Amino acid sequence: MTTISFKAEDKLKQALNALAKKQGINTSAYIKLILTKEINSKLAEITENGLTVAEELSILVSDSMDEVSGPFKTVASLMRALKKK
User: Fold this and answer.
1) 7-16 in b/e burial notation, b at 16+ Cβ within 10 A?
2) Which of 5, 39, 51, 72 could make an SS bond with 78 (beta carbons 3.0 to 4.6 A apart)?
3) What is the pLDDT of residue 26?
């Protein structure tokens, strides 16, 4: 776990404190809840190619780990690169 800090207007802090208290949790837990919901929402959005952001990120990480990249001039050159892996 890590600590994140940021500056905010006093009114924002007061609003966060009030909302957290209403939820029955501390302000830190409330901020974590809000951030987690927003991140999960963004990661679940569908991109133009029909994948979620999370799926695209997974593919990008996988591709970078494979170290096989194109463009390839022929299918044979692609297959040779894949076999080397």
Assistant:
1) eeeeeeeeeb
2) 72
3) 96
Residue 17 in tokens: 């404190």
Query: In whole angstroms, what is the distance from residue 55 CA to residue 50 CA?
Result: 10
Amino acid at 75: V
- Secondary structure (3-state) at 52: strand
Residues contacting residue 85 through CB under 8 Å, at least 6 positions apart: 66, 67, 68
Domain map (residue ranges) of the chain: 10-84
Residues 6+ apart with CB under 8 A from 59: 51
Contact 44, 53 (CB under 8 A): yes
First to last CA, the chain: 35
